[in-house]
Amino acid sequence: MRLGVDVGGTFTDLLLHDETTQRTWQAKTPSTPEDQSIGVAAGVRLICEKAGISPSDLALVLHGTTVATNAVLEGKGARVGLLVTEGFEYTLHLAKSWTPGPLFGWIVMDKPDPLASLADTRGIPERMNARGEVVRELDVETATALIDDLCGSGIEALTISLMHSYANPAHERALLDIVASRWPDIPVSLSSDILPEFREYDRTITTVMNDYVRPIMKRYLSRIEDRLEQEKVAAKLHIVRSDGGLMSAQAASDRPVHTVLSGPAGGVTSTVMIARRTGLSKLLAFDMGGTSTDVSVIIDGEPTISRSTEVGYFPAKVPTLDVRSVGAGGGSIAEVSDLTKSLRVGPRSAGARPGPVSYGRGGTEPAVSDANVVLGYLPPVLLGGDMTLDVEGARKAVSKIGEAIGLSVEDAAKGILDIANEVMLGALRVITVQRGLDPRDFGMVAFGGAGPLHANALAELLGCYPVVVPANPGVLSALGFLEAEFKNEFVQTFIRSTRGIDAGAVWSRFKELRAKAVAWLDEQEVEAADRGISYSLDLRYEQQGFEVSVDVPADLVDGGGALDGVLDTFHTVHERLYGVRFHVPVELVALRVVATGATPPVDEHPPVVANADPKDAVMETHPAYFDGAWSDIPHIDRNKLSVGARVEGPAIIRQYDTTTVLLPRHYAEVDVHGNLLIWPVSKGN
C-alpha cells in the first residue's frame, strides 16, 4: 500500500495504490495553510476509510511539498549566518550584476535583500586557489572569535561557503568542527557538500537558501511525522525532489533546497509515464490547480532537466524538472482596475480559505471557478456529492464584475475565462514557441483540479492535439509521486583542457563519486536489484561560458580508455542544440554521477465497462453557455465510459476528482489505457 500526497494551495490530493490488487483510491480534502499537516492527516483518514484499511497498513508515504518554495517567496525563512573568505563578504550583494533592463534597470529595480544579511556575514582569514592549493592558511584563532560573535548573535542556521572549496573542502570542514564543538545546536551547511561546483555566487546562494528554509522544513516534517504517528501510520515518509526523484524525510530536512520545485514534479513524472504508455512522444504537461498553473514539455518521452532554477529573484543551482509557473488557477481572483476599468485575473488567489465564492466558505471576490459555475461548466456538486456549490452566490459575485465594465453576467464570466486562458497560454508559448518548438507538433496532458476544465480551450488556441485527460487527472501529481524513483546527483568540478588530458584521472574521479552514490543508496535502503548509476561529463568549447552535459557509458568508466568517443558525442550534441560545431579545443568542466532506485510501477487498469452505449453514461442535462447562447448539455459519468466509447461535444464529463469541458466541434474517445483523448471533429475519422 503506497500513498501519494500532494498539498496544493486549495486542495490536498491523495492517491492510494494497492500493489497486490492494482486498485487505486483517491481523495481530496481542503488544504490548511496555517498548518498543512492538519489537511494531510484529514486526507489520510478519509482515503483509508474509502479503501477500508487501517492507516497502519500503509507501507510508504510519498509527499510533495511547497514549504521551501513558499518560505523563499514570502521572505519568511530563518535568520542565516554566513562565513566567507575574507574579502568576499559582498558575494550575495554583487550577485551576477544583473538588472531587469539593459539601460535603466538598475534605477527601477527593487532589489531584494539577500537571504543572509551583511550584518550576519563574517570574512574568515584563509584562501584556496582553483586547484585546491592553500594560498593562505586558516587563522583558527581569529575564525573561532568570529564564529563565537556570529553564533552568539541569535542566528538560526549557519552557511560556510569559502573560495574554491569545491576543489579542497579542508578549510570548510575545519570551520564546521569549530562550530560543532562550540555551538552544537546550530545547523550548518557546507557549500562543498550542497553544491561542490565552481561559480562562487551560485554555490553560495544555493547553500544559503538551503539554510534559509532548513529550520522551517525541519519543523514541518516533524509535524507531518507526528500527525502520521497519531493516525497510527508506521510507514516511512519520503519527499519528492525538484528533479522528480525521491529522498528520505531526513535527507529533505538536511537538504531542503532540493525540494524547491517538489510540488510540480509529480505531474511531470506522470506525464512522462503517459507518453511512454501511449506512444505520444511529444506532450505538454498542463497542471492547473487552485492557485497556479504549471507547464512543462516532454520530448521523445523524456522531461527536460535543468541544472538550475529560480525561486523569486534568487537562483538555486539544483537539478530540477524544467517547469514554468504562472499565477492562474481555479481560485485566481477577477477584479476591475479602478484606474483603467480593465478586467484582470490573478495572480491573487482565494486559496483554500475562504476560497471561491461558490465554495460557500466565506469568499466574496469572484474567482475563475465561479466563472465556470456561472457558465454551467462546473456541476452543482463536486467530489462525488461531498461538496455542494453555491451557484447563485457565484452569479452575484460575477455580475458585479459585469456591472463594472458594462457586460452581462455570462459575458463577464466568459471574459474571466478568456483572460485566465491567455495567461496560461503565455506560459505554454514560453516553453514551445520561444524555444523554436511548434505547439502543433505536441499533444497536451490536462491534469490538476481545473486542468481538464480549460485544456480544450487552450488546445484550440494553440492547435495542439490530442488533449489527453488521464484516468485520475485531479490527483495525477500524487500518482506521479508513486511512480517516482529514488534519485540523487553527485558532482565534482574538474576544469581541464581535454588536449593531452590523462583519461585515467577522469575515470578515477568517477569511481570516487560512484562510491558516494553507493553509500547514499545504502542510506536510502534501496535494494541492489533496483539500483542504477549513470555517468555524464559537463563539456564546453574553450572560452565558452556554459556547458553541455554528455552521457558517458558505464563500461568506459569501468574499463578505461580514451575520451575520443565522448568528445565526438559532445560535438554532435552541441550541433543539435545550437546548430554549429566549432573546431577548437574542448574543455572539461565537471563530472556527474546520478544514483537512482527504481520503485514498482503503478499499473492502472482501463475501464471494465464492456460495450456500454455512451448514451447510458448520461447522468443528467444542465444548461451551459457555449457559442454565445444557453443550451441543454449532457453531463456524462466518466466511470461508465468503456474503452473505445466516443462522446460528441459539447458535453460536460464528470468524475470524482475533476470535470472535463468538451467544446463544440470536438469529440472525446477513451483509449485502451483509459485516457480520454479529445480531438477536433475536423481531424476525426
Automatic annotation (TrEMBL):
GO terms for cellular component: cytosol. This is Hydantoinase/oxoprolinase family protein. Residues 203-489 form the Hydantoinase A/oxoprolinase domain. Signal peptide: none annotated. Residues 2-179 form the Hydantoinase/oxoprolinase N-terminal domain. It comes from Aquibium carbonis. Residues 506-673 form the Acetophenone carboxylase-like C-terminal domain. Pfam families: Hydant_A_C, Hydant_A_N, Hydantoinase_A. One of its GO terms (biological process) is glutathione metabolic process. InterPro entries: ACX-like_C (IPR049517), ATPase_NBD (IPR043129), Hydant_A_N (IPR008040), Hydantoinase_A (IPR002821), Oxoprolinase-like (IPR045079). One of its GO terms (molecular function) is 5-oxoprolinase (ATP-hydrolyzing) activity. Coiled coil: none annotated.
